[in-house]
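Cross-posted from the bioinformatics board.
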Amino acid sequence: MAAPKAIEPLAQQLSEAMAAIHHRGWCDGTGGNFSCVLQRNPLQLLMAPSGVPKGAVRPEELILVDGSGDVLRGQGRASAETLLHLAIVQHSGAGAVLHTHSQAGTLLSRHYSREKDGHGALELHDLEMLKGLEGIRTHACSVHLPVLANDQDLARLSMRATPMLADAPHGLLIAGHGLYAWGQGLPQAQRHLEILEFLLEQHWRQLLLQALKR
Amino acid sequence: MAAPKAIEPLAQQLSEAMAAIHHRGWCDGTGGNFSCVLQRNPLQLLMAPSGVPKGAVRPEELILVDGSGDVLRGQGRASAETLLHLAIVQHSGAGAVLHTHSQAGTLLSRHYSREKDGHGALELHDLEMLKGLEGIRTHACSVHLPVLANDQDLARLSMRATPMLADAPHGLLIAGHGLYAWGQGLPQAQRHLEILEFLLEQHWRQLLLQALKR
Amino acid sequence: MAAPKAIEPLAQQLSEAMAAIHHRGWCDGTGGNFSCVLQRNPLQLLMAPSGVPKGAVRPEELILVDGSGDVLRGQGRASAETLLHLAIVQHSGAGAVLHTHSQAGTLLSRHYSREKDGHGALELHDLEMLKGLEGIRTHACSVHLPVLANDQDLARLSMRATPMLADAPHGLLIAGHGLYAWGQGLPQAQRHLEILEFLLEQHWRQLLLQALKR
Amino acid sequence: MAAPKAIEPLAQQLSEAMAAIHHRGWCDGTGGNFSCVLQRNPLQLLMAPSGVPKGAVRPEELILVDGSGDVLRGQGRASAETLLHLAIVQHSGAGAVLHTHSQAGTLLSRHYSREKDGHGALELHDLEMLKGLEGIRTHACSVHLPVLANDQDLARLSMRATPMLADAPHGLLIAGHGLYAWGQGLPQAQRHLEILEFLLEQHWRQLLLQALKR
């Protein structure tokens, strides 16, 4: 079993990642949330408190939550979305989860949610950038990014997400809400986030271009 | 009654907020204006002087105006728009007002102003980001952002705005002009501004995407 | 007659303005050029040398040219476009000229150039941002931004531009090329540049939105 | 024969160029790669290692590869794309190669690749910005940016690219992948990159505008 990571350097890295993500316009207002596994056994998650602007959280303002989402250390509440962060780190093996509200993510998550039940998927294919997702070796492939209906009951939403986590391309969309991206550690999660956000913006432009050809 | 806030830290925060807002391209040229309540009784408003680029105003260059819009302290004139800032802090309970000229705000404020009288409204619904507006607990709601006809007579414009302030979602649009966003204090107003600007840009993309589906 | 301005502070301001303009993506590559009047009688213009990236010119790398466009001081050549800068400062009374290559400026300059002779105009109206242009007091007005055909013969291009300078709204477009904006001094020219670039980007979005309504 | 350039200043410049390129969103995730010729005889190329985010590579983390793509010095692997970098420096005379994954580059590289074989070309004409490409003196010209089909076999891709390098406008596109831009040295390559990325984004907007006119 790996020894618990020192909390200070991880908190510093997470705080810097959040500032960079806000700078790109992917977590405006108090949108988004971001977490890292500090230790696995028992599970401890370092994350931003709920209801604050995520681009200006200092390392010492991050909170520590346990596997049930209860705050172990730090000021402030844990977001209701903590349950989905926990489901992801428990079922995908991820060590970091980055949840953003970008323009393209919000737009396409709605566009591809089916009228019937709000679920759906977005297909991405034949793009070199797909190779930035762990495990993909060629552009000549097709990836399905799951879309889940939005739900304020996060226990129910997390339960719906769980069976999709193993096959999801290190990310999934919540309809009218945004993207969750994850990775083995924070650097991998940051890479997957940038790749998926790039691909979402690219897909939006492709929709425009295809419409022009008609 | 709350003691008056110290002027220096508030001036520092307002100056930094204005620089960040300019950095996003929401107050180009000499566009926009920004104010904070320093004290309520009698009312004193800290704000940027008129006719200067708002992204580079130093704390000591901010002016102090009274409840009639007269300059109590500082160099420079108060903008004619001070009257609308005052109406908002007096009738909505806001402690800070941020007025921006963004691309999406300008575009949609015109698009949704009725030909007849220039007034109108923009409906925002089913988006998680709505929860960033104080008082909203679920994405499953619908919010109407009022649009007022533009008017160089700010006393008249403020009078027209006043009855809308209690129900407005911490913001309103002036047609062909831009957004006013407010909040209990400066941090809340900044949050509401980022949320509303995000939702306006998102709405613009939704209009494009819906047109493609036809 | 005003005494000549000290060269160092003006060079510092011009260098900083150029860095900010590059940061916005308005002078990529070696595009654009930027000048300030150092003295009027005889005319001396401080400007960037030709063929260098304009966002990284240090104050001491700026050159000084006379009223004929000959270099009085400094390393490097004067751009052929110096002739148009000189025409503007001589015929509009401007003390600073900022020439940019933005996406919207390039696109619309082409769109509004007539097939016959390459000239044309772009109408801007009913926008509060117009009030950022010196001399405009209300949004309820209409402004025509002239478009000139592009020409590698800058003496001829400057001669064609000259009769338009008095009525132009502190700016004009060269087709497929970009924007010239000017003002009494550097701060006014920067304000006019931001205003005109905002209005060009806004006009582009209006064209998209109007097309959707059809 | 020119003496080999000192490695440290070149590494510093390349690291700074990569950070600036990431800042513009042209190499998200681990996308893109960037190289400079350190010496010609025998050939030594300074470049970023494979599989790392290119915006945060410190000068001492750059690797040195020889004319076969083998790592001479430094940690980390050379990207498979090193073969194309080498083909470019050997056949075009370039001293620096910058490979980006921008939104417009990715989109248009796909749009202009023929269904039959994936190859194609994108025509750029009548734009002043073309003059930022070495050797072009007037906007009144037409330039063809080659598009090659994407291929994970980089030896084969490089062989296909080689005959196009002499006539290419200091750049070429790989379909669904991105742009390669080059120049005599790093500053020229950076200039060509900014010019070509500007022209690609401009071309995308032109496609939208033309579709609206129909």
